[in-house]
Amino acid sequence: MKRLFCSVRTVSAAVLLVLAGCSPGFDLSTLQADPSAPDSAEASRSIYAGRTFITQDPFHGTQIEYHGPNGKSALWYPGNSRTVPANWKIRFDGPERGHDVCWQYPSRSYNPVTGQSGGRFECTPDWLYFPGVVQIVQGDPFELASGRVPFPLPKGEYTAEELAKAAGIPDSRIRTVYRDDQ
Known about the structure:
This protein has helices at about 10-20, 40-50, 125-130, 160-165, and strands at about 50-55, 60-65, 70-75, 85-95, 100-105, 120-125, 135-140, 175-180. It is an alpha+beta fold. Mean pLDDT is about 85; it is low at about 1-25.
């Protein structure tokens, strides 16, 4: 018997998508390094590269992930005392279908919600991922690429500003590119 496995990111994003009316609620090209650039893998990649994404869902709570321009990312996951490193990439599906964002976490990593281990790339379509994105911040204000986290993140809903205050990080380091309440 075959079993169908879906990542919790995909399932929770799908639930949010239904609630959000089946779209990210904004034009993704406005987040590209060059908003006038035609749809391409590089234009889609520029949405993520050098930015920190804050996502929220009812299963994980708040997750913070920095996407380095070098294809490496660092996830600040609730309860962890260190970041979860990963490789990230964009799979471009064409102008009509958008793109998928893909992460490859270490094989020794474990997702407590899905019960799955890492080791291979898992991809989520942009239209499923973005409804869970609550804030995008320029750069790596929490210095997640270092492998360290400012403090173990309690499960809950937080903004970058709230986390920065709790970590003693100056407000000037939080340069919001996108917020879902704008």
